[in-house]
Predict the structure.
Amino acid sequence: MAKRSLYQRMRSNAQVRSGLFCLGVLLMIVAVIIGPLPGPGFLIVFPVGLMLCLQNSAWAKRVYVRFKWRHPRYGDWADRVMRRVSAARRRARARLESAMDDD
């Protein structure tokens, strides 16, 4: 049996997961507050908070998927900012399909 890392073992605890979710929400709120300030603070802090929320809450994942379904352009942008592997696979598949259609 493979050993799990400390982070994986901690995330199995419900209190730790809810704490990480709350930290993610707090980071997203802070990002909105520091957004008008000069510099890329919003573009760094907001995706980190969003990732924490998505990793630790099934509810947040459902809301995010619904948002992406209704607003695909913004969902694609959010996936790129967060460097989600699933988004990269989707873009590669779309490029491959468009190349096959051109032939």
The radius of gyration is 17 Å.
